[in-house]
Amino acid sequence: MKRPTFLLAVVSALLMALATISPAADGSIAGSVKAAGLSSNADAVVWIQQAPGTAKPPAQPVTMDQKQMQFMPHVLPVVLGTTVRFLNSDPTPHNVFSPDYEKYNLGTWPKDQSKDHAFATCAKFPCAYTQLCRVHPEMEGFVVVLPNSYYAVSNKEGHFEITGVPAGQYTVAVWHPKLKAQPKPVTVEAGKAATVDFALAR
C-alpha cells in the first residue's frame, strides 16, 4: 500500500532535480560594445537574429517614462507584440509621437498619467521607433522591436550580457541610435559564456 506513495515521492524528487539542472544547460553571450567618437558606449541593443522557440510578449505593459525632460530608458528593446506604457512623471505636460513605420501620435497628457501603444508589426527586424515630444522637441527616445527575448542593452562602459541562451550556433547583431556594425557568428555551449565584441562606427 505504501508503494504508490514511494513512487510518487521518487518522481517528485526527479522532477525537482531536472528543474534545478535544466537552466544550467543554457549558456550566455557577453561582451563589449565600443562606440567610436562618442563619450558613452551605452544604448546599443545586442540581440540574436534567429532563436529557437516562439517569443511571447509580456502579459503586462512595459514602461517608458518621461522624467527630468528625458525618455527613460533612452532605448527600450521589446519583443514583437509588446504594449508600452508611456508615463509622464514630470510636472509639465508631455506628448508622445513617432514618425516611423505606421506612425502614431498618442496626444499630450499631464503628470502621473499614461497612454499605451502596442508594437504589433515589424516587416524587418529590428524596427526602431523614434519617440518624440511635440511640446519639447529636444526630447528623444527609442523603442526597438525584436523577434525574440534574447537581447541586452550595453551600459556606459559598453558591457552587455544575454543570459539563458540554449546551446547552438547563432548570429548576433547590434543596433545603435547613431552607429552600426556588422553581425557576428557565435557558438554557445551548454553552461558556458560565449564572448563577442563590437566596434561601432558611422
Looking at this protein, list some descriptive labels.
mainly beta, Immunoglobulin-like, 4-stranded antiparallel beta sheet, 1 helix, 17 strands
Q: Your description of this structure?
A:
The protein is mainly β and 202 residues long. It has a domain of 76 residues: Cupredoxins -  blue copper proteins (Immunoglobulin-like, Sandwich). The chain is 9% helix and 45% strand. It has one helix and 17 strands. Strands 1, 13, 16 and 17 form a four-stranded mixed beta sheet that branches. β3 and β4 form a beta hairpin. The protein starts with a helix and ends with a strand. About 3% of the residues have low confidence.
List the helices and strands and how they pair.
Blueprint lengths: L2 H19 L5 E9 L9 E4 L13 E6 L2 E3 L2 E5 L3 E6 L5 E5 L5 E6 L4 E5 L8 E6 L7 E7 L4 E3 L5 E7 L2 E8 L8 E5 L4 E3 L2 E3 L2
Parallel strand pairs: 1-16, 1-17, 3-6, 5-11
Antiparallel strand pairs: 1-13, 2-12, 2-14, 3-4, 6-9, 7-8, 10-11, 14-15
